[in-house]
Amino acid sequence: MSPHYMRSFSEGCLRPPTVIGQFHTLFFGSVRMFFLGVLGFAVYGNEALHFSCDPDKREVNLFCYNQFRPITPQVFWALQLVIVLVPGAFFHLYAACKSIKQEDILQKSFYSGFYIFSVFLRIILEAMAFWLQIQLFGFKVSAIYMCDMGALEKKFNITRCMVPEHFEKTIFLIAMYTFTVITVVLCVAEIFEISCRRLGFLKTQ
């Protein structure tokens, strides 16, 4: 891909054709990623080291932690952010290859329809991630986790494990749910803005 296409692609990703889309990019790129990258590491960075069970042995702690966390929250949310960005990135890559200007996206039905489809895909992906997060992490992190150690052939099949900083993790969970909801609301509002511009209720940029 030539430097011109790369420049058009980056400009399209950073400056979407709608006002709400630009706000979404700012929110998604700065607030949400900063929150996950900085605070997420502070809250979850040493979780595996401080996760302890009774008896407090390395093999027991490791086995129960893997049962407690099939996937770490940081990895899940990072995958969520990357996957949600794919539809928009694909559209802007198409626009760059076709030399479509940002102002033309809202003026031509095919381009605006394609863009709305990419936003709709973002909504679906966010909703799926929201559901998966509920299945994996729930809404609250308990201080005690009851681990099933039957696979280790221990005398006691159920053991108690202490979850470090469970209250902070609960707050972080709620925050990530809130970010997902805000993103979905922004996507719906962006579709509404495009529809209003197409119908002439708002002036195009």
TrEMBL record:
Subcellular location: Cell membrane
Pfam family name, one: Connexin
One Gene Ontology term, aspect cellular component: connexin complex
Residue ranges constituting the Connexin cysteine-rich domain according to the UniProt record: 125-194
Membrane topology of the entry: Multi-pass membrane protein
InterPro entries per record: Connexin (IPR000500), Connexin_CCC (IPR019570), Connexin_N (IPR013092), Connexin_N_sf (IPR038359)
Keyword Nucleotidyltransferase in record: no
Gene Ontology MF terms: gap junction channel activity
Keyword Membrane in record: yes
Membrane-crossing residue ranges in chain numbering: 25-44, 75-97, 109-132, 171-192
Keyword terms of this UniProt record: Cell membrane, Membrane, Transmembrane, Transmembrane helix
One of the protein's GO biological processes: cell-cell signaling
PANTHER family linked: CONNEXIN, GAP JUNCTION EPSILON-1 PROTEIN-RELATED
Designated name of the protein: CXE1 protein
